[in-house]
Amino acid sequence: MLAPMLVAVLAAVVLYSFIGFIPGTDETSVLAPVTLALVLSGAGPEVVLAFFISAIVTLNLMNAIPTALVGLPGGVMSAPLMEHAVLLRSRGMASTTIRKMAVGSAIGTVVSIPLAFLLAAAVAPLAEPIKDRAPLILALGACLLAVLGQNRLLALISIVPLALLFRGLPAVYEANGIIEPGDSVNISFFLGITVGPLLVTLLELLNKRRREALPHGTLTRARLSADGFRSRELRPHRLVTGPEGGWSAAMAAASTPLFVLSPVGLTFLLGEASTARVKDPVERAKRAVTVMSSLTHSTYLAGVIIPLVALGIPVSGVSAGPAGPLFEADGVYSLERNIHHLLTLPQFVTATVLGALVAVVVTYVVAVRWSSQITHFVIRRVPHEAVLSLFVSLIVVLAYIDAGAANVFGVLLVGVVCGCLNRLGVSYGVQFMTLYAAPGIVSWLASL
After folding, report:
1. pTM over 0.70
2. Exposed, middle or buried by CB within 10 Å (0-12, 13-18, 19+), for 155?
3. What is the pLDDT of residues 373-389, one digit of tens each?
4. Angle of CA points 331, 334, 336, to nearest 5°
C-alpha cells in the first residue's frame, strides 16, 4: 500500500502547488471536492488520508507565497499574514519572507503531528460518551464557532434556519420520490456551502448595476523582485533566528489542544501575541510571518487528526469543512463507518507521517528555490477562471449523481443562502457544523 500512498502524496503536492500559487483560491472549495472525488473513485482509506494530509501541507504554504510576492492573498488562511508580508515586500524582502514562511510551515508540521496523536490518544477513552452525545456536541460546536466569529448575533440566529434548510430539502426529495427514505444528500449540501461565495459573486454579474460598478479596462499589475529568482540557502537555521524558531514551535504546540477553534482566528490571535513585545516593525513582521506560517499548519493538522483518530465525528471547523469527505461520503463513508473505523493506529501514523513529511520537504525546497519562477508562470499562463470553473463543474456533476437535476438546483439554493451568509460574517465553520448538527436541532425543535 506504500506505493499507491506515495503516488497520491506526490499527486497532491503537484496539484496543490500550482493551485496554491493562484490568488484567491479558497482552501475549502479546492480541497473538499477533489478529496471527495478520490473517495468516490474507490481509493483506499490510507491513500485518501495520505493525499489529504499532503494536500493541506502543500496548499497552506503555497497559498501564502502570492501574498509575499505580489501582495495578493492566496486563500483564507493567508489573510493573517497579509499585513506583515506586504510590509516586508515594501522593504524589498519578499524572498526573505518566503524563506521564513517555509521554515515556519516545517516547524508547525513537525511539532503538531506528534502532539495531535498524543492528544487523540488522551481523548480516545472518552470517545463513546462523546459519540452518544454527538447531536448536542455538534450543536454546541456550531454555537461556539458562531460566538467566536465576526458577526456573532447573526451567526447564532442563522443556525436554526440553516438546519431547517438542510433537513427540509431532503424531505422534499423523499416526498417526491427523488431519493429513497433514509438516503443522504449531505455531501451535495457540503459542496454547496464550499462554493457559496463564488456562486453569489457569479450571480451578481447578472445584475446590470452590479456589473457596471465593477472595474473595467484595467489589469491588476504584479511585480516580482529579481532577487527571488536567484538560488537560496536551504538550511533552516540560516533562514530564521532563534526566537523566530522558538516562538513558532511554542505557538504550534499551544494551538494543537485548541483544535476545535477557528484556524484563522488562532493564527491571528497567537501570531500577534508572539510579536507583542517586538518594537521594530520589520523584526515584528519577520517573526509574525514565521510564527503564523507555523500556525496555519498546526491548526489544520490538529483539526483533522484529533477528531478523525479519536472520535470519528467532525467536532472542529476543519474536520467539518475541508476534511468532511473523510468522515462522510455518500455510499462510501458515514458517521458510523468512516476512516476512523477502517484504519488502525499504525496505519493512521504511517499515512499521516508519509503525507506530511514528503509534502513539507518538497514544498520547502520549491518555496525557497523556485517560488518566484512558479508564480510568474501561474500568473501569466493559468487562468484563475479556468480553475474555478473546473471545481464548479465537479460540484454540479456530484450534485446530479446524488439526486438528479432537482438536487443541482437544491445545491444552488444552498450555495446562494450560505454564500450570502458568509459575506455577512457567518463563517464556513458555523455552516458546516450546522449541516452535521441539523438532525439533532430539528428533532429538538419538533419536541418543543
Report:
1. yes
2. buried
3. 766 676 677 676 776 77
4. 135
